[in-house]
């Protein structure tokens, strides 16, 4: 945005926003030196913050001053006034502004819309975890991102890792270690965290990150229905098995029946890594 014009005494002149200054609007907002005139209906309909603000009546004589940039407020208003409803294919930056302001001002439905659009985007796992954590978006939506990092054969770069807080890094480390233990206990000769299988890695993530489903129940409860009464892969409930010494007789029997190579055919041979 170009600098606001100034009067001779150095005070910025107020200019009307070129798109969101509407003659029939009934609420005026001033952001920096840009004046918006829009319809208060959209604000009162959903936001208790603005409903209470309007009830005070200050805007009847002067604009409401907002401590946001004109560009950000215009992005926010776009949700209300986009005539074509072209919500898809919008840049990430626009939706980040919208989710930030919607969260700040209590526009819960708008926040849900922004989250739905974020879910459609192909975000890198670390970037998605950072964004969702910053805006306190439902943590269960991060399960695929956590799983991707936990099963990755390589570690993230130093710059990428710096985006995460220490608690998240430690929990991902725990996931990788417990997945390695499970793969080793299943007889994998050169286990990686991915060798434990998708279902088991997801179970461990739900346990360590305490993820819950949409109904508020632990996400591990949803995973249990995929297994038997004794759990997935013979585990009990949602517990995660610890590393145990292999049974030589059991391994010998397996080798005689299926061939020694088949006992580890499902395991990928790769370098042992921890997060």
Mean pLDDT: 81
Number of helices: 12
| Helix percentage | 40-55%
The order of strands across the largest sheet is 1-3-2-4
The proportion of residues in beta strands is: 5-15%
Total strands: the figure is 4
Which structural class do you get from the secondary structure elements?
alpha/beta
- Unreliable segments of 5+ consecutive residues: 1-6, 225-246, 250-275
Shape: elongated
Q: Over the alpha carbons, how many angstroms does the gyration radius reach? A: 27 Å
Summarize the biggest pleated sheet.
4 strands, mixed
End-to-end Cα distance, whole Å, is 43 Å
N to C succession of SSEs? EEEHHEHHHHHHHHHH
Structure write-up:
The chain is an alpha/beta fold. Helices cover 46% and strands 7% of the residues. It has helices at residues 40-46, 48-56, 70-81, 92-105, 108-120, 125-134, 143-151, 158-161, 166-185, 198-209, 219-224, 248-258, and strands at 15-21, 27-31, 34-38, 64-66. A four-stranded mixed beta sheet has the order 1-3-2-4, with helices on one face. Helix 1 crosses helix 2 (48-56), helix 4 (92-105) packs antiparallel against helix 5 and helix 9 (166-185) runs antiparallel to helix 10. The radius of gyration is 27 Å and the shape is elongated. Mean pLDDT is 81; it is low at 1-6, 225-246 and 250-275.
């Amino acid at each position: 945005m170009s600098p606001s014009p100034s009067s001779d005494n150095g005070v910025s002149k107020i200019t009307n926003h070129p798109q969101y200054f509407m003659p029939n609007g009934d609420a005026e907002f001033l952001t920096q030196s840009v004046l918006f005139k829009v319809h208060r209906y959209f604000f009162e309909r959903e936001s208790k913050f603005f409903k209470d603000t309007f009830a005070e009546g200050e805007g009847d004589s002067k604009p409401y001053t907002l401590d946001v940039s004109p560009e950000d407020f215009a992005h926010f208003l776009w949700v209300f006034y986009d005539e074509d409803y072209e919500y898809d294919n919008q840049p990430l930056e626009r939706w980040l502004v919208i989710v930030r302001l919607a969260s700040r001002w209590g526009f819960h439905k708008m926040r849900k819309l922004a989250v739905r659009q974020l879910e459609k985007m192909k975000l890198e796992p670390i970037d998605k975890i950072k964004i969702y954590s910053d805006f306190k978006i439902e943590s269960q939506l991060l399960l695929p991102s956590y799983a991707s990092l936990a099963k990755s054969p390589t570690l993230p770069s130093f710059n990428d890792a710096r985006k995460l807080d220490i608690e998240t890094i430690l929990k991902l480390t725990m996931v990788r270690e417990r997945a390695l233990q499970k793969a080793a206990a299943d007889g994998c000769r050169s286990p990686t965290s991915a060798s434990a299988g998708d279902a088991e890695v997801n179970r461990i993530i739900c346990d360590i990150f305490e993820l819950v489903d949409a109904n508020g129940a632990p996400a591990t409860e949803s995973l249990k229905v995929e297994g038997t009464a004794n759990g997935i892969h013979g585990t009990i409930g949602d517990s995660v098995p610890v590393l145990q010494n292999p049974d030589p007789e059991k391994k010998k029997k397996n080798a005689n029946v299926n061939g020694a190579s088949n006992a580890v055919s499902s395991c990928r041979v790769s370098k042992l890594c921890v997060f």
